[in-house]
Amino acid sequence: RNVRNQSTRPMCDTISVCNRNYPTDSWTNITPNILSYQGRNIYMKKNHPLSILRQQIVNYFYKTFVNPKGNAIFSVFDNLAPVVTPEQNFDQLLIPKDHPSRSKSDCYYVNEKHLLRAHTTAHQVDLLKSGLDNYLIVGDVYRRDEINATHFPVFHQIDAVRTLHRDKLFKNNPELEIFETNFKTSPTSFLPIKSSLKCIDQTKQPCHTMEAVKLMEHELKTVLVRLAQTLFGKDIEYRWVDSYFPFTQPSWELEVYWKGEWLELLGSGIMRNEILEAAGIGNTIGWAFGVGLERLAMVLFEIPDIRLFWSNDSGFLNQFKEEDFGKHMKYKPISIYPQCANDLSFWLPDNMGVDDFVGNDFNDVVRDVAGDIVEQVSLIDKFKHPKTGKSSLCFRIVYRHMEKTLTQNEVNEIHSKITTTVEKRFNVKIR
Ligand code: FA5
Ligand code: MG
User: Fold this and answer.
1) How many structural domains are present in the chain?
2) What is the model's pLDDT at position 314?
3) How remote is the CA of residue 275 from the centroid of ligand 2, in Å?
4) 346 with 295, same domain?
5) CB burial of residue 101 (10 Å; 0-12, 13-18, 19+)
6) Which of 79, 202, 297, 417 is most open to solvent, judged by the fewest CB atoms within 10 Å of its CB?
7) Is residue 267 in contact with ligand 1, taking CB distance under 6 Å?
């Protein structure tokens, strides 16, 4: 993946994110467009579809896990600030130093030392260290990604962690153990395992006994299948798929069958023992998962476009009511406004090949200039001139306003603004 710095010289010496000022540097790539979503907290707004879903999931955990007195044992964190350090987002979770998910082309960096979290798992270790054993984290997450109906640079996740001591896990079988008797824990300076050497043994981590892992796996899978059934109904078809995360082993994804396709809902697994050790609770075993709220909501309420979640249109918002969950609550299109597609082709600078150009840098410029009236951006042509050796790219930008019909003039004006910005920013020549 190409991480060359072509677009992201910061405009000012400092940047303000979540009411704090940070010095900018060559890592800074947060755009004004991204900052404009900051603090809207749509997942906490009463009757917003994301909020309804959040409340359903939280209630499910409150009901499912209670102590002998009948009190809920899961704590919920839903307002942790999204600015985190690379240590929180990656290192503490054993994500290798050379992992592509760390790159500037995938994440929004405030500066070298801070980024907008790319998953709610970024808070996992801090909460473990503060002594919590069962908790949910809800929040907005940020990723540089493609632009289409199911991808948006800001979306929402819920992470869950459950850890157990031997006495609780095996309260009915006190002769059983969580750990193999003569396992050696790796030192806590675990980090630079190269991605290429990642261990994908799906059975278990060497330190754990098979009994402990099987019991945890059973609880995790039962809890998540019941959650899916609570949300989608008893008849939902689902399957477990083996997966890989640096912070869990073994790992699984839960998929549901929806409209003729298998759709990934969440990632999950048995927490890596190195993480629990580093948090000071090496005598426990844990499971964890992370689920995307938009994806669930799009399926559940039949919402066709991820941009709708950000709509302020009462015609959209009034369709959802917390009390009506479980009744037939489906999105009804307010009206369909026409799309309008314009292409943009340009020659790259002399020394640049087609694969040196970072598509996500282009996407951010488009969003910055045009906002969310852009429905889709796709690279439709790459070309290298046989004689001059110069390379060119052609992007198709599809415009559609969520709330009105755009005139050709309005689109042309925005498109030419994008064109001049792209020309300047990337030092390209429009064809
Ligand atoms: C993670 O983010 C892991 N942190 C999840 C995890 C937590 C695994 C704890 C194990 C233990 P992933 O990148 O696959 O994994 O994202 C998790 C979920 O977020 C996905 O299953 C999906 O539901 C949702 N998601 C991911 N990317 C997008 C996207 N671009 N748009 C909408 N939803 C997304
Ligand atoms: Mg995934």
Assistant:
1) 2
2) 76
3) 20
4) no
5) middle
6) 79
7) yes
Ligand 1 atom with the shortest distance to the CA of 157: 19
Ligand 1 pocket mutation pick from 144, 223, 227, 245 by most atoms within 8 angstroms of CB: 245
Within a domain: residue 331? no
Q: How far is the CA of 213 from the centre of ligand 1 (A)?
A: 23
Is the domain of 290 the same as that of 390? no
CA 397 to ligand 1 center in whole angstroms? 26
pLDDT 10s digits, 347-403: 999 999 999 999 999 999 999 999 989 988 999 999 999 999 999 999 999 998 878
Do 135 and 182 share a domain, yes or no?
yes
- Residue 229 covered by a domain: yes
Ligand 1 touching residue 307 (CB < 6 A) = no
| Contact yes or no for 12/31 (Cβ under 8 A) | no
d(CA 2, CA 22): 26
Say if residues 216 and 169 touch (Cβ distance below 8 Å): yes
Interface confidence, given as ipTM, is 0.98
- Tell me if 285 sits within 8 A of 279, measured CB to CB: no
Residue 315 maps to a domain: no
Per-residue pLDDT tens over the stretch 147-166: 888 899 999 999 999 999 99
Q: In terms of domains, do 356 and 225 share one?
A: no
Closest ligand relative to 119 C-alpha: 1
How many other CB atoms are found less than 10 A from the CB of residue 430?
13
Cβ of 34 closer than 6 Å to ligand 1, yes or no, is no
Q: Are residues 162 and 220 in the same domain?
A: yes
Which residue segment(s) compose the domain that 419 sits in? 340-430
176 C-alpha to ligand 2 centroid (Å): 34
Task: Give residues whose Cβ lies within 5 Å of ion ligand 2.
Answer: 267
Q: Is the pLDDT of residue 189 over 80?
A: no
Q: State pLDDT tens for residues 109-161.
A: 999 999 999 999 999 999 999 999 999 999 999 999 988 888 999 999 999 99
Give per-residue pLDDT as tens, 34-84: 999 988 999 999 999 999 999 999 999 999 999 999 999 999 999 999 999
What's the sign of the alpha-carbon dihedral 370, 376, 381, 384?
Answer: positive
What residues have CB less than 8 Å from 429, skipping those under 6 apart?
A: 346, 347, 423
